[in-house]
Amino acid sequence: MMAAMCLGFTAGREEEGFWIFTYLMEDVLGPEFFSRRPAMMGYHGDKAALAQLVASTMPELAERLGTAGLAECVSALAARCLLSGFVGFLSGEPLVAFWEELLANHWPDYPRLPLLLWFTGLVQHAERQLQQASAQAAYVRHTSRPPFCNPCGTLLAAFEFTTILWGFVAINILHHDLCVVIE
Fold it and tell me: What residue segments make up the domains of the chain, in order of their start?
């Protein structure tokens, strides 16, 4: 997906797209991001930093989800967002703005910073919905008999997020709770 985005920036000119992709892999993400040994060290480090960043910027969400729940949520989202460069999760203009910021390298000491900042911004954007989803799951989990026949369908219908990303977030956050309800 990242290579396709680089090619898109050059209007299909393969050589220019190749050099942008090379710049992205070597200078922006760095060799440790997709390293073989230790496996993807840069990615895993960024994922751990994201869990701390989300927890510090959104303490209510962190408290509601708990340390393990927040780490699971961040891990699931990071796998889908960071590894794709948000391709498939941000629409046209925001995606291009993110990539322009990422490739501009405004932070020479830490060129991957836009990945972390945009990720945190997306979670902040959906914080209210995530808290509501978590509250609904907690209600269902603590109610001996749910007030509806199809708890999974009803809960999922309540999550009318604007993008597939937030649907994915809700499913991952509530995965354990939904499994308990379905049993």
Answer: 1-125, 126-183
Each residue's pLDDT, cut to its tens digit, for the chain (183 residues) gives: 999 999 999 999 999 999 999 999 999 999 999 999 999 999 999 999 999 999 999 998 888 888 888 888 899 889 989 999 999 888 889 999 999 999 998 999 999 999 999 999 988 888 888 777 777 766 666 664 444 444 444 333 333 333 344 444 444 444 333 333 333
| Cα 180 from Cα 124, distance rounded (Å) | 27
> SS3 letters for the chain?
CHHHHHHHHCCCCHHHHHHHHHHHHHHHCCCCCCCCCCCCHHHHHHHHHHHHHHHHHCHHHHHHHHHHHHHHHHHHHHHHHCCCCCECCECHHHHHHHHHHHHHCCCCCCCCHHHHHHHHHHHHHCHHHHHHHHHHHHHHHHCCCCCCCCHHHHHHHHCCCCCHHHHHHHHHHHHHHHHHHHC
